[in-house]
Amino acid sequence: ISGKKEDVPEKITMLLLGVDEDNSRDGTRTDTIMVACFDTVNKKLSLISVPRDTRVEVPEDRYKVMRENIPNLNTNKVKINSIYSYGGEQGMDFLEKQIEELLGVEIDYYAKISFKGFVSLIDSIGGVDYNVKKRCYYNDKMGLVIDLYPGEQHLDGEKAIQLVRFRTGYARADLERVEVQRDFLKAFLNQALSKEKIMSNPKAYIDTVTEYVETDV
Questions:
Q1: 26 pLDDT tier (thresholds 50, 70, 90)
Q2: Could you tell me if 138 and 169 are in contact, meaning their C-beta atoms sit under 8 angstroms apart?
Q3: Averaged over 136-145, what is the pLDDT?
Q4: Residue 83 to residues 67, 163, 167, 178: CA-CA distances in angstroms?
Q5: Per-residue pLDDT reduced to its tens digit, 208-217
Q6: Which of 31, 90, 141, 151 is the Cys-Cys partner for 20 at CB 3.0 to 4.6 Å?
Q7: How many CA atoms lie within 13 A of 216 on its CB side?
Q8: Contact 89, 185 (CB under 8 A)
Q9: Residue 105 confidence (pLDDT) above 90
Q10: First to last CA, the chain
């Protein structure tokens, strides 16, 4: 975006994705899906989450490509978190279009980060102060362990990823999980984007973004 004020659009919409590289037998799935809209005039950021299990109907042209990538795919009604994986090389484009159709918005940019990158990002700013609302405990045979107690605390990268992945203990499961993710992201941005925080370790910011974040900005 140009530095000239008149060239800056009034609103910028970005698709934010967190990907779980160990959670899919047929490729990377988008475990977290958010759309962020920045109002450049009023300097406000709005966030909306799309639950990962949301069922969508994929148009025939995209479904044909997905069938070529996943031969045993026998329906065009899929969970939205699988589109990026099923679409192969066109996965990001397919997911962007599906989100645009679902929400009635136009996506300007995207940014994708893996779980490993998320942990590194949180650690690069020295952690995030956050009030964990309830006891979060989960342990599965795949080695995922989540063990957090409620209360105001300082979360490093490993604890932060536990927080945003937890969902089985919530009464509304994934719906409550995405609320926690949005709340944590706001806390992260409030703390991470301060001038003092950035200048305290600029190299960590740059290294994390260049190594772990994929974006078309």
A1: very low
A2: yes
A3: 86
A4: 11, 25, 21, 19
A5: 788 888 999 8
A6: 31
A7: 12
A8: no
A9: yes
A10: 9
Please report the beta strands in 127-183, taking only residues with DSSP state E, as ranges in sequence order.
128-132, 136-139, 145-148, 151-155
Q: What is the mean pLDDT of the chain?
A: 87
Question: Cα–Cα distance between 149 and 164 in angstroms, integer?
Answer: 14
How confident is the model over 202-211, as a mean pLDDT?
80
Cα 173 from Cα 49, distance rounded (Å): 14
Rounded CA-CA distance 77/63 in Å is 9
Contact 139, 101 (CB under 8 A): no
Shortest CA distance to 166 belongs to which of 130, 190, 127, 212? Answer: 130
CA distance 98 to 70: 18
Tokens of 39: 């109002």
What's the rounded Cα separation, in Å, for the pair 112 and 34? 11
Maximum distance among all Cα pairs of the chain, rounded to whole angstroms: 55
